[in-house]
Amino acid sequence: MMTKKALVTGLACSLLLGSALAAPEAVRAYSHQAAVQPAPQEGLQSLALPWPVLQASRSPGLADVRLFNGQGQVLPMAWARELPAREQERRVSVPRFAWPEPASAAPGAGLQLQLDAQGMVLQLQTSDGRQSAVPGAARRWLLDLSALPAEVETLRQIRLDWPHRPAGLSSSVLIETSMDGRAWQALQDQPRAAQRLLQLPASEPTAPSLKTLDWPAGMALPRYLRLQFEQPLALQASELLLLRRQAPADLQQALQFQPEPATQTTAPAAWQLDLQARIAPRALALQLPAGNHLLPLRLEQRDAPEQPWRTVSRFVAWRMQRDGLDASSPTQALPQAPAARYWRLAAEGPAVALQDQALNVQWHWQAPRLVFLAPGQPAQLQLAVGRAKAQAGSLPLASLMPGYREGDEFKLAQAQLGPLSAQPEPGWQEQLLSAPDPETRQRWLLWAVLIAAVAGLGVLAWRLVRQLPDRRQEQDGPAA
Predict the structure, then answer these.
(1) Is the pTM of this model over 0.90?
(2) How far is CA 466 from CA 5, 50, 399, 448, 456, in A?
(3) Which fold has domain 251-365?
(4) What CATH architecture is 88-246?
(5) Phi, psi of 220 (to 5 degrees)
(6) CA distances from residue 334 to 229, 342, 355 in whole angstroms, order as listed
(7) pLDDT tens digits for range 202-231
C-alpha cells in the first residue's frame, strides 16, 4: 500500500510538471504587454513597434515579440522589410537654343555661350555674329540643365516635340554632355548614344511616334546637353522626366552619451551609451555643450560588454559662434550602421573641456513593423514581449501575404498600439513555459520525473524506517 502511495505521488507530480511543459505558450510568460487595437474590417494589418518595445525585448532579433488574441492564441505574423525610399517623378521644361552653324568648317569654331551669374545660358553666338536668341530650325540644339538640382534628382528621359511633318520624320540623335559649355563628350553608353526619333507620315495617324530619348541609368546629370540630328529640326518643346528618391522620415530619440571614467591621465576621452536593446542608427545629431568646440570622434559599437569595440564611423562634431550665431555641426548620416546595444564615442583629439560632460544626441532610427493576420471578429489583441532565449515565431512575409510583391506591406491598414506595461514576475509554471525549445522542455520533463521518483522513494523509505520498531516489538512479544 505504501509503495502504491509513493508511486501515485510521483506520477501525479510528473503529470503536473509535464502538463506545464507541454502547455502552449501563454501571454503571462512575457514581462511586458500592450493592448493592440486592430483596424476594422481588415485581415492583414501592420503594426509599428515603438522604442519601449525594443528595449523590453530579451531575445536577439526581437524573437520574443508575440501577438495574442482574446483566447490567448498566438496570431500569425511576419516582419516587414525596411521602409524603402519613395520615388517621385516630375516633368520639367528646360530652355533650348538652336546651335548656330559657324562660318568656318570646324564645328563650334568661335562659339561663345553668354551665361548669367548662375550659369544659365542667355544666348549662343559665333565669331561672325550669328546667334540663336529665337529658336529656329537647326541640326544641333543646346538644352540648358544648369538650373536643375543635380544632387537630389536624376534624369530618366528626354521628351522632344516639333511641328507636324506630313511626310513624317526619321532621324538618329547623337547626345553629348558638358559641364562648362566648352568641352563636349558623347555619352559613355555608346550603344545608346545614337538613338532615333520617329514620326510616321500622316497616312498612318494611329501609329505611335517616338519622341523620347532614354537616359542611361546611374549617369550624373550634366549642366548642358547637345543634341545632333541628321537633318535640321525646329524643336518646339524640350521636356525632361526627372526622378527624386526621398528617404523615409526618421524617428528621433533624445539620448545621452555618459563620460567614461579615465583609467589613465593620458587616455583619450570617451563616452558610452547603453540602449538596452539592439537598435541601428540611421543618423546622429550631436549637440555639444555651449561654447566653441571642435571634436574629431570615432563611433564604435558592440553587442556585449566582454566584446571588443568595432569602429562604425569617423566624423567631426563642432559648435561655435559664426557670424554672431550659435552654429552646430550637421546631422551625421550612418546608412550602413548595423544594430547593436552598446555604443561609444571616442575622441581622436584634445577634449579636456568636454571629457567630464555628457554628450546629448538625437538618435535617428526606423521603427520595425509587424504584419499580422487579425481575427475575423472585432477584438482587442495583446502584444507581448520580454522573454529570454525565445525562438522566433514569425513567418516569411511571402507566406503570410499571398501573391506578395515588394512594398505591399506598406499599403496595409495600420493597427494602433497602447502603452507598454510591465507584468508581475511569472510563477514557476510560466518560467517552465519560457524554455527556449522542445529539447530543453524534454530535458526539464526528464528531470521532473527523476525528482518525483526520488521523492517517492524517499517517502517510502521514511515510512519503512518508522514501522521497523513496531514490527520488532510484535515479533518479540510481551515481556514475561
Answers:
(1) no
(2) 16, 63, 65, 27, 16
(3) Jelly Rolls (2.60.120)
(4) Sandwich (2.60)
(5) -65, 160
(6) 46, 16, 24
(7) 555 555 556 788 888 878 888 888 888 888
